[in-house]
Amino acid sequence: MQASLSLSVSNPAAIPRSSHGFESSIPFPSKPVNLRFCGLRREALGFSSASTYPLSTSRSSRSVARSNKVSASLGSANGSSSAPKSFDYDLIIIGAGVGGHGAALHAVEKGLKTAIVEGDVVGGTCVNRGCVPSKALLAVSGRMRELQNEHHLKALGLQVSAAGYDRQGVADHANNLAMKIRGNLTNSMKALGVDILTGFGAVLGPQKVKVGKDTVVTAKDIIIATGSVPFVPKGIEVDGKTVITSDHALKLEFVPDWIAIVGSGYIGLEFSDVYTALGSEVTFVEALDQLMPGFDPEIGKLAQRVLINPRKIDYHTGVFATKITPAKDGKPVTIELIDAKTKEPKETLEVDAALIATGRAPFTNGLGLENINVATQRGFIPVDERMRVIDSNGDLVPHLFCIGDANGKMMLAHAASAQGISVVEQLTGRDHVLNHLSIPAACFTHPEISMVGLTEPQAREKAELEGFEVAVAKTSFKANTKALAENEGEGLAKLIYRPDNGEILGVHIFGLHAADLIHEASNAIALGTRIQDLKLAVHAHPTLSEVLDELFKSAKVNAHVGRSPVAEPVAV
Amino acid sequence: MAHLLQTSFLPSSQCLRPNPDRSSSSTSSPMVQISRRRSKTGGAVQAKIREIFMPALSSTMTEGKIVSWVKSEGEKLAKGESVVVVESDKADMDVETFYDGYLAAIMVEEGGVAAVGSAIALLAETEDEIEAARSKAAGSGSSAASSSPATASTSADPIPAEIAAPIAASAPIAAAPVAKLASAVHPASDGGKRVVASPYAKKLAKELKVELAAIAGSGPLGRIVAKDVETAAAAPVPVAAVTAAAPAPAAASNVELGTVVPFTTMQGAVSRNMLESLSVPTFRVGYTITTDALDALYKKIKSKGVTMTALLAKATALALAKHPVVNSSCRDGNSFTYNSSINIAVAVAIDGGLITPVLQDADKSDIYSLSRKWKELVDKARAKQLQPHEYNTGTFTLSNLGMFGVDRFDAILPPGTGAIMAVGASQPTAVGTKDGRIGIKNQMQVNVTADHRVIYGADLAAFLQTLSKIIEDPKDLTF
Q1: Distance, in angstroms, between A325 CA and closest chain B CA?
Q2: Do B203 and A332 count as a contact with CB atoms less than 8 A apart?
Q3: Is the peptide bond before A256 cis (omega within 30 degrees of 0)?
Q4: Is A541 marked active-site?
Q5: Number of neighbouring beta carbons within 10 Å of residue A182
Q6: How far is residue A80's CA from residue A121's CA, in Å, rounded to a whole number?
Q7: Interface of A with B in 485-544 (CB under 8 A)
Q8: Which of A89, B186, B188, B341 could connect to A219 by a Cys-Cys bridge, CB 3.0–4.6 Å?
Q9: What is the pLDDT of residue B173?
Q10: So where does FAD get bound (chain A) (predicted)?
Q11: First to last CA, chain B
């Protein structure tokens, strides 16, 4: 996603297109469709540009049919909700985070007149307070780790004198990166002709959105993509200085000597990586009995061996933090812990700072959902598998979709974007259901953790239920030439699959560049490629990707090689 | 096929600094090697407690890391069952047992490293023997503590140079009641019941086998931080100039000229402590003490095993009892930490470094038991078997170079303490008396270095005056 953004900006050809703004209220301006591709996609699909013209014709004819349908549905609404007869936009997206942005780009590509409403800053959590600035901090922590690891450097024959860092410099790097990506995002949307409406968006009624105080805009379809905010459990007082959420932590205003991290999921784990690299000591507070509860148990165990045990980290598991009081008047931050099961008080921790990483809560308040009879569930907007919003009677709300963290299906930036693209596909006449099991996830610790599909216990449960066999294959980074060259042999790749037909159920990787390695597996799941076919694919040597190559090759599939997409002879 | 290794009980904590020499006892069997403990007489195998050894999983493996224990203590094992997962230099492997029995005691915890061939657990044949096995494991555990890095330096036998100067004395003194003292406790520590230590400090303490409760914290609000544990574990002997006595020339000849030799763990710790001392504002006060009476006393009770070091420590402790502030320290820059006991650390040079065995509660023990204690400490130091609390709990340090003829010198303050006294040689000195006569008296010079944040000039002066009175009239030293 980010790659496509920077490309679109660096490609000067994309910029002049911003002059083709949608000032007119005509739903479908008759512009050559191929101009609406963003830079990257146009390049990727450049060879087929000739074929896009016939497509555009068919699309406009379809859009006419659609608008007819809309007015018909309006007529049946007895005029009480006074839905508009003509629309300002084809699609309005509330929220310009990664989900909204992905949807907007795809909508434009598909020829929809699109507006995006942003009440805060373009880019949302991911770009401003999440994945993006945290990657900047993690880039720093990764280098610090390398430079501080004398043993490792010595093994490579390197000599480095004491490495140090400048806190403000690190913080600036994170902030600059967020600003740059935000700029890229804004430019890419402007360049493509997406109207950015500034103000808080709320649903006023069917197909009607209020922006800010009194601007009302109409659209044929609405996507809610308002995202989430850090979830702070009751009893925890966040002061933004010593008791903080990821929002504050990413500004890196200070590096405490000792920080407690409440929650050992992705966010907590990544921050523990950052803080320990910068010299802090970390205490994890985890409500469940095990650290890193979301991960495949085997990966979690290994990750604990590498990411927790040898570092300056200790942990309390099976405890709730019932009360956290910020530091005041020379007193430290206090954290009261109770046993998660017996609810008995266990211990009081005193630390210099506490980071609340207990997950994220959907940001859906004030969205005007009552206007359309939608009740949230724990704040999440209920949707069906096509992201269509379900109202309190269990009926689908026409023309209203919700993607991303706000629907809680899979709280990941790229999942939101994928959901948005799926919605736009449906709006433009192609039914599409996103397979969430094909969406990879990554945790950018050093080394990284990544996964796609089911964990082993999940797979076994499913197998039991549906009556199939499950097998597991594993390969170690210790056997990979490239990993050994980097002296980073610590790592494991694990494949969970069906030996009867070669279907991949899940892949989990812990090791050097795991986040980049997972896509071979996630693409295979998305495209339904079977292991017996993957075994024949070639990987460059020596690369880390051979870890996956080995993994697929070590799987024992009983089925014969299927029809391979590249099986037909190709003249070269 | 399992080799019955007749090695002695190998302590688990060797894993901290595994001794590669021991890999020679390895075999290439991928199974746990279990040796049956034999009686010393070499008779029939009676004992049914077996040691589980770190196996050699590859030809190049010299040490292995315990990834996880598949079985827990007390669990029944059947021949061929996986007991433990070991990580070698190549891969993780499940290791199985050759014998039925019970996993009685785990000696190397998960994450720990053990040399190939060293015992990692005990296997009891029957349930009844589990207890026996455990006590054995515990026994080996304590001896294992001695191999903590502080003492585990290098090759040859460390020769602690007991440094004591001949001293004599005169002048009277009365022992005063000991002031009621409270040691600084962390505000959150529940009146001292709870230890507040940072995560890394806890981890280090476990690794280095340091008792956290015995350490005073120097972190924010008295929290124990890693530095405190390292200081405690590394026997922070701070003295600027302590040299090995007899073996010094021999040691010197061992040094290969023109080479750069990295610090041992102990030397590294000393180096860190020395640097750290630069952040403490110290000052020095010297005093000349007549030792005729002390020398006479020493001559008299020497045959009862009393050493000069014990006499000096005792005298110092009695003086400290009257001047608690000199026994205090400044840990956080904001407060006095008044130590509840008077523990006199005495710097001893050992091979490749120095260590400060501690005479605990030196003010309360009589001179004979103090002397015995000192002998025991020196023997342990020589055998590198000092327990952490025997070298890191000092509240006041003595450093004595008198036996080399050094008449005065200057010591560096060990971090975490308030004062250190450098003791010079006692030598015959021409002294003018008030009545105009000139006589010869044995005199020694002492020089105290102190942290001026808590100990002021007048405090030291008063302390030294008391000390000189005790030494010059040493009757209180023998009770």
Answers
A1: 14
A2: no
A3: no
A4: yes
A5: 18
A6: 35
A7: none
A8: A89
A9: 37
A10: 135, 201, 226-228, 405, 411-414
A11: 65
How far, CA to CA in Å, does A152 sit from each of A49, A255, B416? 51, 25, 33
Q: Which residue in this structure is represented by tokens 């994890």?
A: A284
User: How far, CA to CA in Å, does B405 sit from each of B166, B311, B424, B449?
Assistant: 10, 19, 8, 20
Report d(CA B13, CA B147) in Å as an integer: 7
Candidates A478, A480, A490, A492, partner chain B, best to mutate (most B CBs within 10 A) = A478
Q: Do the Cβ atoms of A350 and B223 come within 8 Å? A: yes
Name residues 36-95 of chain A within 8 A of B (Cβ). none
**Residue in A309, A312, A478 closest to B111 by CB:** A309
Across the interface, whether the CB atoms of B198 and A334 are under 8 A apart is answered: no
Length of chain A as a residue count:
572
Q: Yes or no: say if A286 and A428 are a contact pair by the CB < 8 Å rule.
A: no
Q: How confident is the model at residue B61 (pLDDT cuts 50, 70, 90)?
A: confident
Q: How many inter-chain contacts (A to B, CB under 8 Å) are there?
A: 44
Evaluated on CA atoms A104, A106, A109, A112, the torsion sign reads negative
Average pLDDT, chain B: 74
Q: Which candidate, A133, A132, A357, A342, places its Cα nearest to that of A259?
A: A357
Structure token pair of residue B14 = 């060797």
Pairing of strands A388-390, A360-362: unpaired
CA–CA separation, B421 and B270 (whole Å): 18
Residue B180 has pLDDT above 70, yes or no: no
Q: Which long-range contacts (CB under 8 A, 24 or more apart) does A532-536 make?
A: A532/A502, A532/A557, A532/A559, A532/A560, A532/A561, A532/A562, A533/A502, A533/A561, A533/A562, A533/A564, A533/A565, A536/A561, A536/A564
User: How many Å lie between the alpha carbon of A248 and the closest alpha carbon of chain B?
Assistant: 23
Going by the annotation, the residues of the binding site of A for NAD(+) are: 263-270, 286, 359
Q: Does residue A345 sit at the B interface (CB-CB below 8 Å)?
A: no
Nearest to A415 by CA among A435, A396, A401: A435
Measured distance CA(A363)–CA(A130) in Å, rounded: 15
CA distance B342 to A78: 93
Q: Provide the residue-wise pLDDT of chain A in tens; the chain has 572 residues.
A: 443 433 333 444 444 443 444 444 444 444 433 333 333 333 333 344 444 444 444 444 444 444 444 433 433 434 344 555 689 999 999 999 999 999 999 999 999 999 999 988 999 999 999 999 999 999 999 999 999 888 888 888 888 877 889 999 999 999 999 999 999 999 999 999 999 999 999 999 889 999 998 899 999 999 999 999 999 999 999 999 999 999 999 999 999 999 999 999 889 999 999 999 999 999 999 999 888 888 999 899 889 889 998 899 999 999 999 999 999 888 899 999 999 899 999 889 999 999 999 999 999 999 999 999 999 999 999 999 999 999 999 999 999 999 999 999 999 999 999 999 999 999 999 999 999 999 999 999 999 999 999 999 999 999 999 999 999 999 989 889 999 999 888 899 999 999 999 999 999 999 999 999 999 999 999 999 999 999 999 999 999 999 999 999 999 998 765 554 544 555 55
DSSP H/E element including A443: strand A441-443
Chain B positions contacting chain A at CB under 8 Å are 67-68, 90-92, 111, 186-188, 196, 198-203, 219-221, 223, 225-226
Of B111, B188, B200, the CB nearest to A348: B188
pTM (2 d.p.)? 0.60
The answer to whether A313 contacts chain B (CB < 8 Å) is yes
pLDDT tens digit string along B84-120? 888 765 566 778 777 888 888 888 887 778 888 888 8
**Min CA distance, A550 vs chain B (Å)?**
16
**Amino acid residing at A495:** L
Contact predicate A247/A129, CB 8 Å = yes
